[in-house]
Amino acid sequence: MDATEFSEKASDKPLPLPASNKSASTAKRSRSATKAAPKKRNWSPFSSLSRRIMAINLFSIVFLAGGILYLDQFRSGLIDARLQALTTNGRMIAGALGEAALADMTFSGGSSYFNLDSRNIRRVMRRLAVVTNTPARLFDREGDLIADSRFLISAGRQIILEELPPPDQRSSLQKYYENTYAFLAGLIPASQDYPLFPEKRSVSAKDFSEVETALKGELKTVIRQTRDGRLMLTAAIPVQGFKRILGALMLVEDGSAIDDAVQAAQVMTLTVFSITVVITLLLSLYLARTIARPIHEMAEAADKVRLGIGRRVEMPDFSDRQDEIADLSISFRQMTTALYDRMDAIEAFAADVAHELKNPLTSLGTAIDTFERIKDEEKRKQLQAVISSDVKRLDRLITDISSASRLDAELSRTEGETVALVEVIDGVVAMYSADRIPRKVQLDVEVSSSNITVEGVPGRLGQVVRNLIENAISFSPDGGRVLVRVQEERDLNKNQWVQIDVEDQGPGIPENKLEAIFNRFYTERPRDEVFGQHSGLGLSISKLIVEAHGGSIRATNRMSADGAVLGARFSVRLPN
Length: 576
Fold this sequence. Notes:
The protein is an alpha+beta fold.
């Protein structure tokens, strides 16, 4: 069974015939055989994508660690805390010294004199300095140094305390990080430039601005540094008695402990940072491998597909990953399968075209050869009719083949639109006036609604309807009836569909041919029809159009209650 085709005029060039020249075919195979092999794609854990992943992961860690090592906020907090402690201890010692000065006061002649330069004051100062573990210096009202806790005399001996460093219990790894920290700290410029701390033995209030401020009755703290860069924290507190300034007390603390604490914290930060970097690198390599490696394998397979190495190249399957790589793998595999199916279809189409063109060409060549040898005019006229028929058949084949070859590309480029399906069907039916329908066949249309619409290409949908109507008319008996029915349906999944049924009252379709009739160049025409009037592409083209619109087409037989065949039915389902 076949359909009468809704063909376009063949204004384009026909498809080229398969090359029959053996040498050309051999040369083509030779060029294919010498096709360059795909360039080997080198993949390594440190590919471009891997490096970018590691760079992005390490940037935030390096930036954070660099900020911790450079901003030094922890150091500033320790300095503020120690200055606050010095101020508190200084207030306590200054108050005790003021009370001790009052205890040493003597009254004579109604006058009083407060003096900090006494043995009792030195004893109190020494004891309090030992308790607070803070060196202290005492200045009188004239700014002269009268006592230094480091050199106070006790029991006729000079006592100088010097703590011994603890035994070195650092591990080799800790020493390595401390050396690394010292190197990095040397690269970072000093964040503060403090005043120089006077280290001479004989000092006065003029050497310390904070002492001069304390002699005026105000408390002041100053941060200084020695020539070798050690911090020295000082706090000067006025010593008062009976609301009079008796002198100034200056507490001095070596900031080496602060630097040691800061260094220990930053070395720990450096240690944690290095461990984090190693872990981040390992995780980045794992992430890069899970991303870059599959992409690399799919790229290699795509190269093999592009160069045509192997009959079918199997794309790597990563569908079990359940991520975007899996989606990409599935899409690549589906695309490759569709590409190979398309290549197989093109190859089969070319073979079918060659076969279909060979028959009329052979008949035409035989008729021409015979025409030259025969002198009988009657037989020459018969041969001329055969030649004319074969030429028309070739023209029809080439036209239909050209239309079929352009169909897929045209449908992929054409933008769909909302199609009023009933109007399209009415327009096709209106083309069949009474004088165009053979054997007085009646053509009727039934619709469930006049507002049925689908998304698609109106011209191609009209081509499908015309192919089916022409096919039904060609198999209908004299006075038969062709019915076009359009209705909307909803399936079990509640999806809306539009179904178009074209029914005739012909002999029906053999049960074993219900699928074969949609194959290219398949034809099985009525016995009274002249051979060669159809190319066998009508139903095949209709199927391509319907499937390109997301629908389906099938053929069945209309059966009576007693099992007799009443005719054929072609059903088209399109998404609504």
